[in-house]
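Submission checklist for the structure archive. All mandatory fields must be present; incomplete records are returned to the submitter.

[x] Identifier: asparaginase
[x] Organism: Neonectria ditissima
[x] Residue count: 1043
[x] Sequence attached
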Amino acid sequence: MSQPSNQDVVKELHSDLARKYKRHAVRIESIWRSFDKKQRTKCLRAGAVEGVVLKHSTDTSLGNVCKIIPEWNLRDMTEPGSEFALDLLKHRATESLFAQYRAGPNGSPGDHELIEKMIRTRNLRYAEDFKDCYTFFTGDEMHGSSFKLTSEKEDSLAAFAPAIAAGLCVPQSTGELILLRQINLLQSLNILVEDILDQGSTVAETKMSKKADKAATEAFSNLSLQAPERKLALADIVATAQSQKDSFEEYLDLLSSEPVVLSHAVNVCFFSRPELVADEKGRRLPVHTDQYISAAVFEAVHVAVKGAAMWKYICRLLELLEAAKGDKPRRAVIVQEISNICHLEYVRTQAIFKRHVQSGTGAKWFKRASNGFDSAGNARVTMKGNPEELTRTDAQLHYVLRLCQSETTSLKAAEWMTKLSDLHKAYPAERERLAEREVDSLSDLVVIVAFIQDLSSVISMPTVSRKKGQLFVAGTQEVEAELNQLKSQIDLRDFAVPIENLVEPGMAQGALETLDRFIIEKAGTKMGFLYDDLVEDCLARLQVQPEKAKTSDEQTSAPEWQQSATTSQSPDVRVEQRKQKEKTRPPHSSAFEMTPQAEPSRPEPAPPSQTFEVSASTAEVFSTLFNKSKSRGSVTWPDFESAMAELKFSVMPKFGSVYTFLPPESMGNAEFMMPSLLRLVVAASSALLAGAVPVPVPAAPVLFTRESFNASLPNITIFATGGTIAGSAGSSSQVTGYKAGALGVDVLIDAVPEIKNVSNVKGVQFSNIGSQAMNSSLLVDLSQRIQVAVDDPYVSGVVVTHGTDTLEETAFFLELTVRTEKPIVVVGAMRPATAISADGPMNLLESVTLAASPKGRGRGVMVVLNDRIGSAYYTTKTNANSLDTFKAYEQGFLGAFEDVLPFFFYPPATPVGRPYFDIVKNDPADGMPQVDVLYGYQELNAALIPAAVESGAKGLVLAGSGAGSWTDDGNTAVQKAIKENHTAVVYSRRPMDGFVSQAPIEDGVEWGIGGGFLNPQKARILLQLAINAKYSVAQMRSIFEHN
């Protein structure tokens, strides 16, 4: 699929909108008119980038958005009783593109007139000038067609003159702006329609309530970890495979019977398409054209059917292996087939996992080859960079990317999974950073890796062969190639557009029945039978081939199989043969049936059930698991652990995140296996759940950008806290005594329009105070917000504007508490924004440029002022008034700016011994433990030490003279505070630089902790975090004196 032109995209979006409006107009209008202002605003924000929409038609906070689509604003669109939005929707959905070009709704300007006005009056320009290029708008066929004059230009222009005079031919730079306006309006309206229908849907959704983490932790402590009691036997492997087969078949049943499950699966497929990965130029294929939704339905069903077929075949092969005891030739053939099919399932699940990672948390680490496609017709995506770079900065992403690499074998995958599991045990918050679809696909990958590991312990597994045992592998490739050709031909838009429409009565069933009929017509039989027949054909030939091998005296080697005999047939003959066979099949005879059965089979009598009395929370967990309603909820892993613990199950760890739950003796020998971090895969139960938040709809990134509309620009979030950089004085010459934090973040951004040339910026007004008013509660809140921002794969970096008086303390706190390799830049100013030659605007531009630069990755938090880049770990304010105040005399600068561009003196590195403190779950209201700084001087008043302790100080930092020296009386008071109150004491220094290697030693005991290279104010921050983390004195000493 090549990169479509704007001309093609606008036509596709218009067709989508017209179809939706024709089908749902009455319902859309009814729902919208029933909405109040809050509901309308919610709809409008849902489809916008990060929920940001123009406040009014002249709002400049989003750059050029107000020049391109000024009508898309909250004031005009959401006013109760207003028909503005419905009039706009009706006009765009029912009028031709040419009519929209000429006139707007209710006599307003058309697209051509509005863009021309913005060019004349508001300096709107396109990035490229397209010399000698013209765009025609003369009807739908020619709408947006562009031509370049290469010869006889004067004659050509003369021929174009009538069209130019009539406004039907414009310079391409203008034409691209017109198309851009139409694309953004049509795409926004498409999304709005879906959000209106979604909010107005009568289908309720239920969500599983989460227990408190503390309760889950206590319950888990009741589970006992056991080593395997006996060596696994082949019967155990057969039972495991059967369990996984049953899980897939159960999921197929859910997919066909519960519309919400199908809707969720389609949503996941649609928004994980490889086409959405940026190519080498940062371009993505269209996000929201409906032509891909039908293929997503096809794909959701195909993935489920193929997975079920794989495990059915594995089960049958294991049964054959059990029956072939003593028959070495037959066993050799079967074992080779098992080895190959297990490898095929590993490759399949790895590819699905990679697909979700490359469109999720690992998006920045993949690129799509423009005009490059794999054998299935999907866009080819490759990894860029070396995951090894993430070893220290983002261990989870490192392990995840390793699992995506094609060279990672199942054996190596088990090692990476174990490391990932260990990481989650040490840092539980890391697990929450993975998207649900990444976790789900990781679950399937874990299952096959665990299965291969167990299987290898029972039988001697041969290496994968490309020549031997290729029956099912070759057959699967044939079936998949045939189905992939059909995927782009199916049209299910009447049922599945928007995707949420699938949950409406009859829509999911209609889509599946239409899909069945289409595949029967094109392939001769249903999708399920294609795989059913493949399984049976492979098994039949497996029975025959070893006998042939015996007659040829080839008892010790598996034969090389030919591909299916149907391969040599013409497609028409093959389809006709299948159609004839279809007539003789009993109804609903496939295990992979996707349409509801007309007459449900009579269930077998159930064995007597055992009743358990459990708590309400445990009852809720199992009620959710086995609920067959349309709106099944989801169950978290801690909740499931708690429920199983209450039933007195013990858990046997296998590796990584794979566990087997063993019931108490009173329940018999049934086993449950949890091969997942967050999702349940439980045999014979409703285990593959789909009750989850739908994948968010990405909006058009162009609406967040600068004048050139380059959607590949990085996204930067600016957190404004106040300070001098936002200060205002009474005159332009006043640089002291001004009011800090007087100006909002929007004013700061608007004052530096050049920012929009390097990034798409979002401003967050976190606070607006002088930095002397910053406190630990605000620091915790700021750190948590920044962590959320940098965890967003679409955010490239963060800038924090801050007052300079305590800037170094905030920067140091963020250095120790935010876990990311993305650039975080803290910036301030020494002159208020109202001063002559204010330094804030240039500092802000340089900091945003740095945050947007790949060169800034992996360097920790940085401080930017006066054209210099410093490490937050060591940089300090050295002068109360000078612009050139932030320095690190001993350690030096990391880099500088040359014409606003960052230049680094060294490759990426972080400070030696820098610790990390996880405060994601801290309540900001609790702040940090009180730690006071006491200043050393001649004739020190030692009574200050117990006074600080009595006032609530849990720790003290002593700014001693020289290398941390303290008076004798002072040391005595310190020792008393340590003995009697267990006060943590750090010895630091008054001088600008140097280090304190250790605290005073008396009788062989070190009384206190040496502050290392940290100055008192930074030592205070580190001590607060260490006390909060409940570090021992030895642990504290290791992080301070190591410095």
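[x] Structure attached
Curator remark: Residues 313 and 535 are 6 Å apart (CA to CA). The longest helix spans residues 293-323.
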